[in-house]
Write a structure and sequence with these properties.
single chain; 351 residues; alpha/beta; Nucleotidyltransferase, domain 5; 10 helices
């Protein structure tokens, strides 16, 4: 899994029958080097292929092969021990208003490189059937959360924020993108030459929120739309913070993430008893403290219930790969807006 934060590739092993998750295996993260991350960032929003994107896609796939090989070495396993890989790839554009989504990643190239059957291109079938193509992880969240007190919300803070709401252990999930998570904040910090992320919330935590800029950001009509709904990484214009200092701009963009989550919670049919947070944003105290204060709800990292928030999305696509092979649904009317529960993903066998 390579997410909208563009920080690297997460790889994880799980054992599952497509319904229950029997065990979690080893995991790793393969960070992108700064030059490769910059090249990925440069093609975000692309609408047509070119030679540079073709080269980038091959390199991205080959890096995923490196991640798989290293993970197997770490686990002391060989390729024949693995039934299937779930390969999400890298989203570079998600334009549901135009009826399409684009993830870089060559499933056949990966299967050949590592010698393992692969499922990839998970979102296309849902979009073709009229769905949003995102979020997809809720089906995995439901599998993990059956024993938790409900109703519960699982919030993923990657580049974009998305929420899964489970009213009961057997209920179909509700899910949607809440708004920005770390993407706008990280891009702001990068543009200002202060690194590539707001590590430990140090920059956002040292600034002051500009209320006028925050009001402009929250004026986006997306927040009043009913769910299900989804976003591209670059859906929001950070222009309202353009003239602020590094610290105040970061504080305002962090507040934007917090406020958009709060607006999303208001859309739910009932308030959850707590919010469990996954993704890199859970490491940012500005987000975590701000959400708890704003929402007056317990806000905890998913580690509080024994999950691993650094690789939950990677695990989710492994789980969905198994479901895909069995023809089981990975998207639902209240997660993507598709008319009926729907499977997804394209299968390619190893050579």
């Amino acid at each position: 899994m390579s997410g909208t934060s563009l920080d690297g590739i997460d790889a994880a092993l799980i054992e599952t029958d497509g319904d229950r998750v029997q065990s979690f295996g080893p995991y790793l993260t393969l960070p992108y080097d700064p030059a490769f991350r910059s090249r990925l960032r440069s093609v975000l929003g692309a609408v047509e292929r070119n030679a540079a994107i073709d080269i980038l896609e091959r390199e991205l796939t080959d890096l995923h092969a490196v991640a798989v090989t290293r993970l197997l070495d770490q686990a002391g396993l060989s390729a024949p021990c693995i039934d299937v890989i779930g390969f999400h790839g890298q989203t570079i554009n998600h334009r549901i208003d135009l009826g399409w989504t684009w993830q870089l990643g060559l499933g056949g190239r990966l299967a050949k490189a590592v010698g393992i059957d692969t499922v990839y291109d998970f979102r296309r079938t849902d979009v073709a059937a009229g769905g949003q193509g995102a979020p997809l992880a809720p089906v995995y969240h439901r599998a993990l959360a059956k024993s938790l007190e409900m109703p519960v919300a699982i919030l993923n803070l990657g580049g974009v924020g998305n929420i899964t709401f489970l009213e009961g252990p057997d209920s179909d999930p509700i899910a949607f993108d809440t708004g920005p998570a770390s993407a706008l904040l990280d891009d702001w910090i990068s543009r200002n030459g202060a690194g590539h992320m707001d590590e430990n919330g140090r920059i956002s935590g040292s600034g002051s929120v500009n209320a006028g800029a925050l009001d402009q950001l929250m004026g986006n009509p997306y927040f009043d739309q009913p769910y299900p709904k989804s976003l591209d990484r670059n859906a929001f214009d950070p222009g309202p913070v353009a003239d602020l200092s590094l610290q105040d701009g970061a504080a305002t963009l962090a507040a934007f993430t917090i406020e958009s989550v709060a607006r999303g919670i208001e859309l739910l049919p009932v308030r959850p008893v707590r919010i469990l947070v996954t993704g890199g944003g859970r490491h940012n105290p500005t987000f975590m403290t701000g959400m708890a204060d704003h929402l007056n709800l317990p806000v905890q990292s998913v580690e509080a219930v024994g999950w691993n928030g650094d690789v939950l999305e990677a695990q989710a696509f492994a789980y969905m790969a198994v479901r895909s092979r069995q023809g089981l649904p990975i998207s639902f009317p209240m997660t993507t807006g598709v008319k009926a529960p729907l499977t997804g993903g394209r299968f390619v066998s190893k050579p």
